[in-house]
Specification:
With 486 residues, the protein is of the alpha/beta class. The chain is built from 22 helices and 7 strands. The chain starts with 7 loop residues before the first helix and ends with a helix.
Length: 486
């Protein structure tokens, strides 16, 4: 939402820097198309970026068709975009407005603009606040604490606000608490700077506003949040860190607010097993307990003719998409701008169509999926959605006795990918027992050598001889063939 009001040249350079950070080299023509400007505009923006980040760029090149830049390795994407946002007079005036300074003459003096320009910026800020529904038509702030904090968050995440608006001591306390939270709750999991600042700002808003502007959740929604592991662990950490202030500062509503904020960040987990466990918990609480969410997954499955249930490649970004719709927080987040290929750009139209149709049927609210959040989701799930269902490859096992069947099957089970391969349940004790339909399937036949005496195996045959004594080598050859021909 806020990006619709920030100066167009600022937003364009933010996106261009993010594209360069991700891709290093860009086609001027393609980038101009994606940003809906002329190639000359891209060239001018690139020249300004080179000047602005002169000390932060290792090397850069520019030709008539391509631009490239490599930034210092210790820089983050967030550090780069924050530096560009510093140039936004709109964001600076938003900050002044929130601190109580609404005089246009103050804008003239501090932003070095004309009176006419100051009036225009002031009007844009008020239009944004009205669009975000925290200000009425008479320019009075509306009491909706959760939405107000979301708007404040969208501003504070983009500017260096400490000197103008923050209470320095409380900001330091917020940082110390987030450090302890990550150490105690996340087992020293590291998060990037953007998400660290996101948590700190949310804690800071709780510390500075909870007494005079308390949050209030619908009871049914708060009851769901209370049941989560994050809520319970977060409350323990708050009691440990703020033993005397928990009752007065951190009500269950405030803890619910911080819980929702924590669930929105991406943890750089050191162990894939933790990722899987976390996903299993989230899919149980978010997907399995919600008929509306399951219906949306079915809509995606039907539209793209793919199986998506229990597919972590789809469900993980899908759950993040769902979480971002909580209280429409996705309209206020500082999300990465992704450089999408042509196939992904076409896919966006289908993704948006599915979401809009689902919203009409199930969601009675003004939820509006932002372009940025849909771009992110599309970039994450495009390969999954565009990979059409393929006929599964079937393995037939022909063995002399029951134990041989167990031996071959158990070893095979450990190595095959069950999303596109499976083992026939029936146990065959002679190759002539194989079903006639076997040839019409993509298949592999494992047959003990002793049972192949009368069968000649051609070079292109799908029959693979196996024996107990050579099974390790036999299995390697079988798997190489299976994955090459699946």
């Amino acid at each position: 939402m806020i990006e619709e009001y920030i100066e167009k040249d600022i937003m364009r350079r933010v996106k261009l820097v993010e594209f360069l950070f991700e891709m290093r080299e860009l086609s001027i023509k393609d980038t101009a198309k994606r940003l809906n400007v002329t190639p000359n505009t891209i060239k001018r923006d690139f020249d300004k970026i080179l000047v602005y980040f002169d000390d932060w760029i290792l090397y850069s090149t520019s030709t008539s068709q391509k631009i490239s830049a490599v930034f210092l390795s210790d820089l983050t994407r967030y550090t780069l975009v924050i530096k560009i946002y510093e140039e936004s007079k709109f964001l600076n005036v938003c900050l002044r407005y929130l601190s109580g300074d609404t005089d246009y003459l103050s804008i003239v003096e501090n932003e070095f603009v004309s009176v006419a320009k100051a009036f225009q910026i002031k009007k844009n800020v008020e239009d944004f606040f009205k669009h975000a529904k925290i200000m009425d038509e008479n320019n009075h702030f509306i009491h909706d604490e959760l939405r107000y904090r979301s708007v404040v968050l969208s501003i504070l995440m983009r500017v260096n606000f400490k000197e103008l608006w923050s209470k320095a001591e409380l900001w330091q306390i917020a940082e110390q608490f987030v450090d302890e939270l990550l150490e105690r709750f996340s087992n020293n999991i590291k998060i990037n700077k953007r998400e660290y600042i996101f948590l700190v700002v949310n804690v800071y808003l709780s510390l500075t506003r909870s007494s005079d502007h308390p949050l209030k959740y619908p009871e049914n929604e708060l009851n769901v949040i209370r049941q989560s592991v994050i809520f319970k662990e977060l409350k323990k950490t708050l009691v440990h860190f703020f033993p005397s202030e928990v009752e007065t500062t951190f009500s269950d509503d405030e803890i619910g607010y911080l819980t929702a904020a924590y669930r929105l960040i991406s943890l750089n987990t050191p162990n894939y097993l933790i990722v899987k466990m976390d996903h299993d918990y989230e899919r149980h609480t978010i997907i399995e307990n919600s008929p509306e969410i399951r219906a949306l997954i079915r809509d995606f499955e039907k539209y793209f003719s793919v199986n998506l249930v229990d597919n972590i490649l789809f469900e993980k970004p899908f759950i993040n998409l769902v979480l971002s719709t909580w209280q429409n927080i996705q309209s206020f987040l500082v999300e990465q701008h992704y450089y999408l290929n042509d196939e992904q750009l076409s896919l966006i139209l289908s993704v948006r169509k599915i979401l809009e149709e689902w919203q009409k049927q199930y969601i009675d609210s003004d939820l509006d999926f932002t372009d940025t959040i849909i771009d992110k989701f599309t970039s994450q799930v495009s390969t999954t959605l565009l990979q059409k269902n393929q006929q599964k490859q079937i393995f037939f096992v022909v063995a002399e006795d029951e134990f041989s069947h167990i031996l071959y099957r158990e070893h095979l089970e450990k190595w095959i990918n069950h999303s596109d391969k499976f083992i026939d349940d029936r146990m065959y004790y002679a190759i002539d027992e194989l079903p006639v339909y076997a040839k019409s399937w993509s298949h592999v036949i494992l047959c003990e050598r002793a049972l192949l005496a009368d069968h000649e195996i051609s070079p292109d045959s799908t029959i693979f001889p196996v024996s107990r004594s050579t099974f390790s080598l036999d299995l390697r050859n079988i798997l190489m063939y299976a994955y090459d021909n699946s």
